[in-house]
């Protein structure tokens, strides 16, 4: 009977401690606001809910978020326990790569008497083929899945996707090149309010991007 009394006290104490965790966000209202920025300009959605990017050369666009603030219980040393995870359905495969470099002759010509800037005598082209055997597909948000990836391993979720943690302004840079013109890209965002113990709220967003 004495042992049962002790166990009951411990059980009640644990339940009371767990019930002390408040809602993760101030005023019990968690919200997200994500926008696209391209070459310094903040874009807006069209009437169909798509984000249109007018392609202007090899570059990247940026996803910029704004999150509602957390309850002080979930802010440690002024660092909020937030997490935004980015993923997309668009992958890039590297088959071959070709680039040119300038060639210079020994004791060649220079553009002035200081001899600081040599004048090239031509170019040399390097070609790399079968890159797919060396580099796995690249997701445009910025990650790759290894060839022998362990999907059952506990660390798997930390490798898939790109993560922006512990801030109210999560961002993600997304690759953009001419092969994407005319394509539609889906960006998936999972935002976690309080990534530690206690109550948490998860909000999922999807951004539909059209490159024109």
Can I get a quick summary?
The chain is mostly beta strands and 212 residues long.
How would you describe what is shown here?
There is one protein chain. The chain is mainly β. The chain has two domains: 24-92 and 138-211, Immunoglobulin-like; 96-129, no CATH class. 10% of the residues lie in helices and 40% in strands. It has two helices and 16 strands. The chain has helices at residues 2-18, 156-159; strands spanning 32-38, 41-42, 50-53, 59-67, 75-76, 79-80, 82-88, 91-92, 97-103, 122-128, 138-139, 143-144, 162-165, 171-176, 184-193, 201-211. It has a five-stranded mixed β-sheet, with no helix packed on it. Strands 2-1-4-14 form a four-stranded antiparallel β-sheet, with no helix packed on it. The longest helix has 17 residues, at 2-18. It starts with a helix and ends with a strand.
Give the helices and strands, then pairings.
Elements: H1 2-18, E1 32-38, E2 41-42, E3 50-53, E4 59-67, E5 75-76, E6 79-80, E7 82-88, E8 91-92, E9 97-103, E10 122-128, E11 138-139, E12 143-144, H2 156-159, E13 162-165, E14 171-176, E15 184-193, E16 201-211
Named at the architecture level, the CATH assignment of the largest domain is Sandwich
Helix content: under 10%
The assigned structural class equals mainly beta
Q: Span from first to last CA?
A: 76 Å
Shape annotation = elongated
Features:
mainly beta; 2 domains; five-stranded mixed β-sheet; 16 strands
């Amino acid at each position: 009977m004495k042992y049962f009394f002790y166990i009951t006290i411990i059980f009640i104490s644990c339940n009371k401690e767990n019930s002390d965790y408040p809602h993760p966000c101030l005023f019990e209202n968690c919200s997200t606001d994500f926008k696209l920025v391209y070459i310094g300009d903040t874009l807006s959605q069209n009437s169909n809910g798509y984000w249109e990017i007018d392609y202007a050369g090899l570059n990247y666009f940026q996803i910029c978020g704004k999150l509602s603030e957390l309850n002080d219980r979930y802010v440690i040393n002024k660092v909020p326990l937030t997490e935004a995870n980015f993923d997309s359905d668009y992958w890039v495969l590297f088959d071959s790569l070709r680039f040119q470099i300038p060639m210079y002759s020994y004791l060649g010509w220079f553009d002035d008497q200081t001899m600081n800037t040599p004048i090239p005598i031509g170019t040399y082209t390097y070609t790399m083929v079968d890159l797919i055997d060396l580099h796995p597909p690249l997701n445009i948000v910025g990650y790759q899945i290894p060839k022998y990836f362990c999907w059952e391993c506990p660390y798997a979720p930390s490798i898939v996707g790109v993560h922006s943690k512990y801030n109210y302004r999560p961002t993600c840079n997304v690759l953009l090149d001419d092969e994407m013109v005319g394509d539609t890209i889906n960006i998936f965002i999972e935002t976690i309010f309080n990534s530690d113990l206690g109550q948490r709220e998860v909000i999922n967003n999807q951004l539909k991007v059209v490159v024109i």
